[in-house]
Amino acid sequence: MPLDGKAGTADQRNAAAQQRALDGVRACIHSGEYAPGQRLVESDLMERFGVTRAAVRLALADLTTEGLVERVPNKGARVRVVSVAEAVEITECRMALEGLCAAKAAARATSADHAALRELVERMRAAIAAGDLLGYSDLNHLMHRRILDISAQRTAISTIERLRGQLVRYQFRLALQPGRPQTSLAEHERIVEAVVAGDAAAAEHAMREHLRQVIAGLATPPAP
């Protein structure tokens, strides 16, 4: 316990400021507002999130560790650019971990979880029907997150979320590939069917096949 109560309060304020900057910049990267390669100017971040330069620097250090930010000599920090080859490697790692989580989810899911997963499928179907491809992309993420939450595999979840955060650029690009959302929907339906049936082996297989198709999509050049 600090001898000076005021010092303790200052430490808490500094920690809160660092967390605010960390959460804020991470959210902007995940949403695509901060694009790959974009410079992250400390003074701009200080003003936007209402924090000190020290808080910004600590937040950027944490995001560098997460693989979302990179330091460029003599130029400062920028949103890290992930190559297609690295994106494929990341998705291959996800395939193993998310396959495991899908199997665990099939074994653990309750009737309430079944209903929530089916509702998400219906929302995904409605987004495609409405031509809301970016909305579908968001629901795609929610579906994966829901299955991870049901699995309760905390170590796998933290690793997967860190890996997924590096693929924002490709997440949106895949959503815009002609025909990909419809194919993706069918893949998610098979995952949900296996989870609802309590078939762990089928759930793992369906998840791995889905991410194998994601890898195939990553290797497809974007439409001109």
Describe the model.
There is one protein chain. The chain is mainly α and 224 residues long. It folds into 2 domains: 5-79, Orthogonal Bundle (Arc Repressor Mutant, subunit A), CATH 1.10.10.10; 84-218, Four Helix Bundle (Hemerythrin (Met), subunit A). It has 10 helices and 3 strands. It has helices at residues 5-31, 42-49, 53-66, 84-108, 111-129, 133-151, 154-165, 168-175, 180-196, 200-218, and strands at 39-40, 69-72, 76-79. Strands 1-3-2 form a 3-stranded antiparallel beta sheet. α4 (84-108) packs parallel to α9 (180-196), α5 packs antiparallel against α9 (180-196) and α9 packs antiparallel against α10 (200-218). The longest helix has 27 residues, at 5-31. The protein is globular. 29% of the residues are buried.
Which characteristics define this entry?
single chain; mainly alpha; Arc Repressor Mutant, subunit A; three-stranded antiparallel beta sheet; 10 helices; disordered N terminus; Tscrpt_reg_HTH_GntR; DNA-binding
